[in-house]
Amino acid sequence: MAASLIINFQAVDARNVKARPLLLISFDGFRWDYLTRAKLPNIERIIREGVHATDGVKNVVDTSTLPNHWTLVTGLYPESHGIIGNFLRDDKIDKVFVPKYINADYDNDPRYYDDGGEPIWVTNQLQGGRTGSIMWWGSENAVKWSRPTLQMPYDDNVNFTRRVDVMIEWLSQEYPVNLGLIYFFEPDHIGHTTGPDSVNVTEAIKYTDVIVGYLFDRLKEKNMLNSINVIITSDHGMTTTSEHTLIFLDDYINIEDYDILSHDTVIAHIFPHKGKLDKVFSALEKASKEPNSHFRVYLAKDIPERFHMKNNHRVPPIVAFTDIHYRFVANASRGDHFPLAGIHGYDNEEKDMRPFFIATGPDFKKNYTVSSFDSVDVYPLMCQLLGIKPAPNNGSLNIVSTLLKHHEDDTAATLYTYIFVIIVANVVAGVFAVAVFRQHRYLKKRNTWMKLTPIDTKKRVRSTRPKDIAAAGVHLMAEDKDHVSDEDEIDDMNDKNRNK
Ligand SMILES: [Zn+2]
C-alpha cells in the first residue's frame, strides 16, 4: 500500500441488516455543469427531493474513466489502488493492460485490479451483503477472490433501459441485492466525438434524464421509492480539444528510444529504453521550458504530491502532462492519432474535469446542497449507508455525512449523551462527597476513643472487638478499624437487647 495512504476507519462496527439498499449509478463523462444545459425534469426532481454537490466532485488524476471508477468504489487515490491510468504497464506482469473500450474481449487481468484496493462489493459481501454490477469498470475481475454476486459483463450493445430492468429484477428477486452498480457510457462517447459544447451532448444529457426517469418509474412500480438510496454521479467531466492543440512528441524525442502506453493521450506514460532515460528526459524537459510548450514533464519521483499518483510501482520513469485542451501524439506516422472534439484526463484542479453528483432516498436530506467534496469520500459514504465497516481508504465522512438525514440526529444524540454523562458524574461525585464526609466524621470519633485507650504495643489479641482490645490494652491495627466498628455496634446492640 502506498505511503500516502491515510488509514481511515469509520465508526461502523458491523453490517447493519436494517440498512437500506443502495444504487450507485455512473453516467460516464457527465460534467458537473451539464445540469444547466437543458430542462431535465427527472434529475431536477432528485435535486429537489435529495442532495446535490453544486460545484461537482473533485475527482482524481488521471481524470479518466478507469482510475476514477476504481476510486469511487475503493475510496483510494490511484497510487494506492494501482489503477493509475486507462492503460497500464506493470513490469511484474508480462503484458500491457488495454481498456475494454479499445478491445472489449480483452482479458482484464485481475492482477491489475487486485493491487491493494477493496471495491465496495467485496466490502459488502465480506459483511454478508449481495451485490449486482452492470458493467461497472473492473467488476469482472476477482479482487480478494471475490466478484460481485451478480453481474452483467461489459457490452456496449445492451441498451440503457435493459440495464435498468436487470437491476430492478436483482433488487426485487427472492434474494435481492442490497447494493447495485450500473454503468452507462454516455454522455462520454458523444462528448469525445462532437465536443462538450455540442447540441449532440445536450441531447445525450436529455437522454440521461429519460433513463433516470425510467429508473425511478420502475422503482415506484416495485414500491421501492421510499426504501432505497440512489447515488447518481460520474467519473469525470470533459473539455474541448482539436487538431490545433496537438503536441507531437516526435518533434523532441525519437520513438526508437522509448515505449509509450497510448499514442494519443493527455498524460504520456514514457518508458525509456535501456540507457536512454537521461537523453529522453532532458530533451523533453528542455522542450517543456520553451514558451508555449503547453506541457510539463517529471521523473516519477518528482510528480507533484497532490496528484496522489507517484507512489506506485506502475508509475513509468517519465510522466508528461499537457495543459488543458492539449494532447500528446507519439509516433504520428503510425496512425494511432484520431481527431477528437472533446477530451479529459487533465489536472483535477481544472473545473471542467469535475463530474456531477446527486443523490436521493430515505437516508438523504431533502433539497440540500454542498459545494463539493472529494471523490474518495464516496466509498465511506456508501459504507455508511449500507451499514458496513469500510476497508482502509483515503476518504472522509466530514462533508458527505452532512448529506445524510441522521447527521443531525447524531449530533443531537451526542449532545444528550454528554448531558447524561455530566449528570451521572455529578451524582457519583455527590455520593462520594457524602461518604467521605461521613467517614471523616467517624474517624474523628474513633481517634478520640483511641486516645482514651491505654495502649500496650507489645501485646496482640485475635479479637478485634474494642472491649477485648481495651481489656488487653493492645494496639489497634489500622486495617481493622471498619471491622471493629461493625462488630462493636452489633455487640453493643446485643448487650442492650439482652438488658431489656
Ligand atoms: Zn472518455
Task: Give a written overview of the molecule.
- This is Ectonucleotide pyrophosphatase/phosphodiesterase family member 5.
- One of its GO terms (molecular function) is hydrolase activity.
- Residues 478-500 are annotated as: Disordered.
- The chain crosses the membrane at residues 415-437.
- It is a single chain.
- With 500 residues, this protein is of the alpha/beta class.
- The chain folds into 3 domains: 16-239 and 346-404, Alkaline Phosphatase, subunit A, CATH 3.40.720; 243-339, Gyrase A, domain 2, CATH 3.30.1360; 414-499, no CATH class.
- The protein has 13 helices and 19 strands.
- The strands form 5 sheets. Strands 6-5-7-1-8-18-2-19 form an 8-stranded mixed β-sheet, with helices on both faces. The chain has a 4-stranded antiparallel β-sheet with strand order 11-13-15-14, with helices on one face. The chain has a 3-stranded mixed β-sheet with strand order 10-16-12, with no helix packed on it.
- A hairpin with a 6-residue loop joins strand 3 (88-89) and strand 4 (96-97).
- Helix 6 runs parallel beside helix 8 (199-221).
- The chain binds zinc ion.
- The site of zinc ion has 5 residues, from helix 7.
